[in-house]
Amino acid sequence: MGLSNLVLVAPKRFPDEQANWRAAGADDVLSAARVVSTLEEAVADCHYIVGTSARGRRIPWPILDPRNCAVKVETEARKGQVAIIFGREDRGLTNEELQQCHLHLHIPSCEDYSSLNLAMAVQVVCYELRMLMLAPDTSTNELDQWDVDFSSAENIERFYKHLEETLVDIGFLDPAAPRQLMVRLRRLYSRVRLDEMELNILRGILTETQFWANKSRQLQAKNSAKE
Prior knowledge:
The protein is an alpha/beta fold. Helix content is 47%, strand content 9%. The chain has helices spanning 17-22, 27-31, 39-42, 66-76, 95-98, 118-134, 153-169, 181-192, 196-226; strands at residues 7-9, 34-36, 48-52, 63-64, 82-85, 103-105.
């Protein structure tokens, strides 16, 4: 289908003879595959991440079928690296892994057989991307003229960690009972797509918030000591 950038996350066996004969002529893709130990490492340099999912979630996420998702991927690929994540053969992606994604992709199969095997799911998605690549490009996109690069997944994860620490510092997030606060904040920021300048602004606000929260605690401790 014309795709060649394959990343494997902690495969049980690789290289493997079975993988070689199943590649069916795509040995070049397999031999060039990059092997990493974590999903975070796999998508660290990506600016837009799509996760495949066969079932609904407690907290709904933006979701598209393969055809409409292909259009979205083509649009996002104009500004940076895009990753499409496929989960394990037996259980797909975990909730935590899906929360790292901007968008979820669902193949609308019959409800009685809602889960396709991995190879079929990959082929369906790659086919839609291939058909879009073969179509004449007559579209224009407002992101083509964007003045700053969009944030990578690695920098976004640093922001989420900084945000969580700040919310704990100001007493807004209780680590003992976090509920779904960070999940919902992830969904919020995933919808708006942050560029690097916007991310730096937000982290600057968080840093200043932490400074004043710490100063307030020091003042309270000083007043308590006087009493």
